[in-house]
Amino acid sequence: MPYSLIKSEIVLAVLGVLSILMLPARGLANAKHLNTAMRMIGHELLLSSGDSTSRVLPIEEQGNSFLIGFDTEFGFQPEKLVNLIDSVNGHAHFARHYLVEVLTCESGQVVYSYEVGDTARDIIPCRGRQQEIACYNLRLTILDPMGPFITPVEKSPKEASVKPRGFIPLVVLIALILTVSLLWVYFRQRNSAQVTNPHLMVLGAYRFDPAAMELVLKGEHQELTGKESELLLLLYKSVNTTVEREVILNKVWGDEGDYVGRTLDVFISKLRKKLEGDPHLKIINVRGVGYKLVMNGE
Prior knowledge:
Layout: H1 3-21, H2 26-48, E1 60-62, E2 65-68, E3 74-76, H3 78-92, E4 97-104, E5 110-117, E6 131-134, E7 136-144, H4 157-160, H5 170-193, E8 201-203, E9 206-209, E10 214-217, E11 220-223, H6 226-237, E12 243-244, H7 245-253, H8 261-274, E13 282-286, E14 290-294
């Protein structure tokens, strides 16, 4: 299992444990717990679109609604969105009935929405329809909370005079602290052992390193020639936009020789073969104009 997914599973497990252990600390835990759950939704959403490097913006709380923003554009499949939010809720227990809306960044127009609840029939449209890459915000509105966030029943004066007991037994607290500490040390050491590559680019399921002239897919490295790397980088910088043949030949080959169109077609064919590992990543021939690198199956 990839490292990022293992880390996500551990975070979700810790969220689930804390949601149970901190039942009496409702008021204090509520905001922090919900904020963490919303950030986890944003993190999982980016991962599902093949992006493990972009940032989830600070969560904006608006009453019972939480706005999740991103510093990058992405596409999404409604069915995956429904499943990943349901998975986070299954661990964090933030609501039994909620409404999810996907809005455009510029106009705030709702491009997709659905509602899930245990007392109402789930309303989930467009399950199999891929949404195009764009700048989106996600708004989650809690219609009925659950677990530790149910409003407590008002106590009688006699009950209120009884001092509450510690909500976490000492042994459990020590075990939890040790577990979290060990996990923190483990991931810190693992992160420090991994050298950050400033040249690495996210290309669908691939990681593209133009400096090292290679593609990486699931830990397997695939070498590129100098021209293949330059050509892929040029297409990547204009992703989902057609690049004219003349522009490609001029920027990649320059004045090195009289390269005819067939030469470019051969290099495109080689790149297509090396990108076969991701079916949502394609290089399309725009007849009579040039080529376009398409991500997420647009």
